[in-house]
Amino acid sequence: MLFHSLEFILFFPCVCLLYYVIPYRFRPLFLLACSYFFYMCWNPGYALLLLASTGITYASGLLLDFAGKIKNELRQTQIKKLCVALSFISNLSILFFFKYYNFALKMVVRVFQLAGIRAVFPAFDVLLPVGISFYIFQALGYTMDVYRKEIAAEKNFFQYALFVSFFPQLVAGPIERSKNLLTQIKEPHPFDCEQIRSGLLLMLYGYFQKVVLSEYLAIAVDSVYHTCTYRTGFQLLAATILFAFQIYCDFGGYSNIAIGAARVLGFRLMENFNTPYFATSVADFWRRWHISLSTWFRDYLYIPLGGNRKGFVRRQINVMIVFLASGLWHGAAGHFVVWGFLNGIWQVAGCVTKPFRQKVKRFFGVDETVFSHKLLQMLLTFAFVDFSWIFFRTGIHQSVTIIKKILGFSGGNWFTWGENLAAMGLTPATFCLLAVSLMLLLIVDLCKYNKINLIEWICKQGIWLRWLIYLTGIFGVLIFGVYGPGYDASQFLYFQF
Predict the structure, then answer these.
(1) CA 135, CA 165: separation in Å to the nearest integer?
(2) pLDDT, mean of residues 422-451
(3) Which site among 157, 168, 279, 441 is 20 to 30 Å from 306 CA-CA?
(4) How is the chain split into domains, by residue range?
């Protein structure tokens, strides 16, 4: 069940209506049943994996709580570490089998081939369970939080199961923390008109990002990338720039719908995107992009590895480990590893060259507070990030071909007049619609960057202006949205992760 499918449009209002009608004490159980129904709409059998991950981490939390009562500190520490290890090994084993087994198998076969040995191993043709990377990471985060005594072990299995499976953020995040979401499950959520209105507005903006912007951008990007051999360098450069906004609108749109839907039900999920393309460095970009995953890797991988506490060199190694792991998390393919490697290299290079760059700025008297300097930093950061997006979007061989064409190393015309819109699958009308939509995205992000809350501003306006905005948004999405062949909802990009 996709957020922009007819099924969800019918499912969500029914859930909200019943949720606010039934007594408080039954609401967690009701939401749990709704969440499992939501997930089972893709594949009922994979709900068993969700239940298995939930059961393992729930049991590990109870065992950690029991171990904390042991008086012998050495034995207590040993049992706690064993519980965490078993929780991580069992959950990551599930993730490895469904997501990485065939990838690892190919790597092993290649190693044997390089050694001149012919090897044959059984491969498994299994469908990747939707959202498996998200809910396993969320469950493992709970295990670590209990281990660190940042939260008490949850005794109520059903409330914990709802924390892992809460349907708005189940399949593509944000990856919530137990300290935030699990504590909210225990609280009553009275009917709040203001909160519901702000949640619906956020959902409407998310639908605009996905159904209008992302889908038109997908048409342009796919038309060029799928025929990259025949495209000019300019067309590939334009498609690469547009892909940066496609993935932002696609995933950012999902996050806004998820956060908005949770807000309608009275829950506050963490922010997942904060104007990422206004970042002034790659490190700053990763503080603004997919915040729930970036902070997860920071808290549960980077810091346990030593973070920045073990010297300059070790810090850079830790950064590279985190980004290589992030690349693998996104997909079992070499081009995702390259993408993660590039983002790690950008950060390491920025850290290593920072003293030199500061000296150059002082020598030339550069004022870092002026708009022109910040704009230059934003453009350079976007260029580095967008370059790495090429490897995120497509395989290594094709990525190299695209880069050569963009840089003009493949011969032929780099730019031709009169055929660029057709090459991108756009008409003058759809191009204008795309340009206006991108401008609206820029305005919204500029307001957010300058700490202007547009939703609060809209909610404070007079009734005629509020409803004008509501109806314009609703009919704009309905009229200009792209729903796929036969008006089917297209899948979100991050569902494959």
Answers:
(1) 7
(2) 92
(3) 279
(4) 6-191
Which tokens is 311 given?
């010297």
Instruction: Map tokens 């059903």 to a residue.
Output: 158
Three-state DSSP class for residue 174: coil
User: Is the Cα dihedral 136, 137, 143, 146 positive or negative?
Assistant: negative
Q: Which residues are catalytic?
A: 330
CA nearest 30: which of 17, 49, 44?
17
Q: Which residue type is seen at 132?
A: I
Q: Which residues contact 66 (CB under 8 A, 6 or more apart)?
A: none
Using the predicted structure, report yes or no on whether residue 487 has a pLDDT greater than 60.
no
pLDDT digits (tens, 9 = 90+) for 120-151: 666 666 777 888 889 999 999 999 999 999 99
What separation, in Å, do the N-terminal and C-terminal C-alpha atoms of the chain show? 16
Residue 377 and residue 281 in contact, taking contact as beta carbons nearer than 8 Å: yes
Contact 403, 395 (CB under 8 A): no
pLDDT of residue 363: 86
210 class by beta-carbon count within 10 Å (0-12 exposed, 13-18 middle, 19+ buried)? buried
Q: Which amino acid is at 291?
A: I
DSSP assignments along 317-378, one per residue: HHHHHHHHHHHHHH-SSHHHHHHHHHHHHHHHHHHHHHHHHHHHHHHHT--TTSHHHHHHHH
| Residue appearing with tokens 């209990």 | 146
pLDDT at 416: 83
- φ, ψ of residue 99 to 5 degrees: the values are -110, -30
CA distance 191 to 471: 23
Summarised one tens digit per residue, pLDDT across range 280-331 is 999 999 999 999 999 999 999 999 998 888 888 999 999 999 999 999 898 8
Residue type, 161: A
Q: Measured between alpha carbons, how far is 261 from 257 in angstroms, rounded to an integer?
A: 6
